[in-house]
Every structure is written in structure tokens, then in C-alpha cells.
Design brief:
Number of strands: 0
Function: Modulates RecA activity.
Family: Belongs to the RecX family.
Low-confidence stretches: none
Protein name: Regulatory protein RecX
Main location: cytoplasm
Number of helices: 9
Keywords: Cytoplasm
Strand content: under 5%
Number of domains: 3
Largest sheet: none
Distance between the termini: 66 Å
Radius of gyration: 21 Å
Helix content: 55-70%
CATH topology of the largest domain: Arc Repressor Mutant, subunit A
CATH superfamily of the largest domain: Winged helix-like DNA-binding domain superfamily/Winged helix DNA-binding domain
Length: about 160
């Protein structure tokens, strides 16, 4: 029972309240509802119902999440890791990343080059500076091939 209320809220009430603000993965909702002392059985039943009604969808969450991270200039490794941390199935992640590539929504090589160009306007002049740029792109979740492409692309702009 919540202080000041006459009855405790149901898992559905709490889930709807959370989903009204933003999308959540099933795993995130499970954790949040469990923290509010709802039983595991009640949570599972509630989330099954919400998914059947189309109110909660991991696929919809992943699609939105991937697009927002691309807009931020993040690479596939970081996007994948963040989604896994949020409890999304690897198959769903792989499908979503393949979909944005197939639809032409992202070219990871060009995104790495654009991300680097936004941060650094001049070509690198020292091995130390090159290493700094490599670390920058790696921390943004780009693969080695993407980093190499972006560095060569920036070096060719003089």
C-alpha cells in the first residue's frame, strides 16, 4: 500500500504510468514493477497482456532506440551493448541493426566519418593525436574498419 492511498496500485496501473512517459523494454518494466513489490506472476501476466494489446513492444523500443542513437552519432557496438544491457534479445537487436542498414537509414562508415568531422576539423598530425581520435570513435561504439575509414577520410580533406 502506498502512503496516503486507499489501495495499492496494480502492476498494470504502474506499467501504464511508466509507458506514458516513454517506451520501456519488457526487462526494464519487469525490474521496475518488481521494485514496487508486485509478484513475479502478476508482472508476467500484466506484461503479456500489455504486449498483446500493443501497449508494450520490445521491437518498437529497439527501433526507436536505434534511430535515436544513430542521430547521436553512436556506432553499432555501443548501440548493441546498450540494448543488451536493457535486456533486449540479441536476435531482435541484430534484426533491427540489419533493418536500418538495409533501409539505407545508416551507413556506419559515413556516420563514423561525420562524427569524427564534427569533433575534429583538421587532419591529425601526430601519432598521439591519431590515437586520441581512434579512442574517441571507439568510445562511440564504432568498429575498427569504421574508425580507419573515418580517419582516412578526414586525412584526405586538406
Amino acid at each position: 500500500m502506498q502512503p496516503g492511498s486507499e489501495r495499492a496500485s496494480s502492476p498494470r496501473d504502474d506499467a501504464i504510468r511508466l509507458l506514458a512517459r516513454r517506451e520501456y523494454t519488457r526487462a526494464e518494466l519487469t525490474q521496475r514493477l518488481a521494485a514496487r513489490a508486485h509478484s513475479a506472476e502478476a508482472i508476467a501476466a500484466c506484461l503479456d497482456t500489455l504486449a498483446d494489446e500493443g501497449l508494450q513492444s520490445d521491437a518498437r523500443f529497439v527501433e526507436s532506440f536505434v534511430r535515436s542513437r544513430i542521430a547521436r552519432g553512436q556506432g553499432p557496438l555501443k548501440v548493441r551493448a546498450e540494448l543488451e544491457r536493457r535486456g533486449v534479445e540479441r536476435a531482435l537487436i541484430a534484426t533491427a541493426l540489419a533493418e536500418v542498414e538495409r533501409e539505407g537509414e545508416v551507413d556506419w562508415f559515413e556516420l563514423a566519418a561525420a562524427t569524427l568531422a564534427r569533433r575534429y576539423s583538421l587532419p591529425d598530425s601526430t601519432p598521439r593525436e591519431r590515437a586520441r581520435r581512434e579512442r574517441f570513435l571507439a568510445s562511440r561504439g564504432f568498429e575498427f574498419e569504421h574508425v580507419r575509414y573515418a580517419l582516412e577520410r578526414l586525412d584526405s580533406v586538406e
